[in-house]
């Protein structure tokens, strides 16, 4: 998820959306950066937060 939602991938997402017709052509790269940044942060929290949950389960045993 981190690689897919990385804001550096915004130009590729913009090109994909324009080609397939998923979103309006006016969006472009700046809008895709605004869309991908929160998704990237959520994926980062899930990735980094999962290790803490695993550690807390091991301490209980």
Q: What can you tell me about this protein's structure?
A:
The chain is mostly helical and 61 residues long. It is 72% helix and 0% strand. It contains two helices and no strands. The chain has helices at residues 10-20, 28-60. The radius of gyration is 16 Å and the shape is elongated. The mean pLDDT is 81.
Give keywords.
single chain; 61 residues; mainly alpha; 2 helices; elongated
Instruction: Kindly state the percentage of residues in helix.
Output: over 70%
- Separation, N- and C-terminal Cα atoms: 31 Å
- Compressed to H and E, one letter per element, the order equals HH
Average pLDDT confidence is 81
Which class best fits the helix and strand makeup?
mainly alpha
Q: DSSP strand (E) fraction?
A: under 5%
Shape: elongated
* Main beta sheet strand tally, sense and closure: none
The oligomeric status of these chains comes to single chain
User: How many helix segments?
Assistant: 2
Beta strand count? 0
- Cα Rg: 16 Å
